[in-house]
Input
Amino acid sequence: MKKLMILALSVVTLTACDNLGKNSAESSRERDSLMQVINEKDGELNDIIACVNEIQEGFARINEAEGRIIIADNNAESASSQTLIRENMQYIQDAMKQNRELIAQLQEKLKTTTVNAVALEKTIANLQNEMERQNQRIQELEASLAEKDILIAEQGEQIDNLSENVTALTQENREKAATVAEQDKNLHTAWFVFGTKAELKEQKILKSGDVLKSDDFNKDYFTQIDTRVVKEIKLYSKSAEILTSHPEGSYSLAKDSKGEYVLRITDATKFWSVSKYLVIKVR
Output
C-alpha cells in the first residue's frame, strides 16, 4: 500500500513538471511543494505501519507465552511450573492490554488520516478479529488451568475485562461501518417522476406553472433510485419536457426506434448536483 501511494504521488509530480514547461523556477517550487506533501504522507503511513507491526509482534509474543504455559502445564505439580504459568499469564495480560491500546490509537488515526481510510479500516477490523480469536484461546486455557487451581481469580477478572473491551471495540466498528453505508446510500439516492400536466398538478408537483415550489406535493408518487445504477429512464411518450433544473451536458433526451423519448444520464454527479428530484412532463 505504501509503495502504491508513493508511486501514484510521484506520477502526479512528474505530470505537474511536464505541464509547467519552460518556467523552471516555478517548476522547482511546485516540485518542492509536492515532495513536501509526499514526505508528510510518507511519515503518516510509516506511523500507521509501525503501529500495525507492533500489534502483530504483540500477537506473536502472546502465542509464544501460550506455548510456554502449555509446556509447563504438563508438569503443573511442580512449584516452578506454577510460577512460570502465573508469570506467563501476567505477560499475556499485559501484551493484550498493550495491543488493545494500540488498536484504539489506530482507530483515532482513522478519524483524521489522509491515506487510504478504507484500507486502514479493514486492517483495524482484521486486527480486532485476531485479538478476539486470541482472547478466546486464552479463556479456554484459563478454564483448563482453573480446574487445577493454578490461575488466581484476579487474573481471570482481568482477562474478562479485556474480552469486554474487545467486544465493545468490535461493536463500535460495526456501528461506524453501518453509519458510513447509510450515509453513502443517502448520498446516491434520488427520485424521479414523469406524467402529464394534469397528473402532475393533481399530485401538487406542478402548481401555477411552477414545479416543486411547495412541500405539500405527493412524495410517494416519485420513484426512488440509486444514481450510481440508474442511467437511463424510458418515458414511453413522443413528447417530453424536463421541468426540474439539471446541468446541460450531463444528459441527453432523444427518441428511440419507436419514436418515444428516453432520458440518458451521461454524468450522474453533475446531473443530480442541482436537484435530487427529477420531474418530466409528457403527453
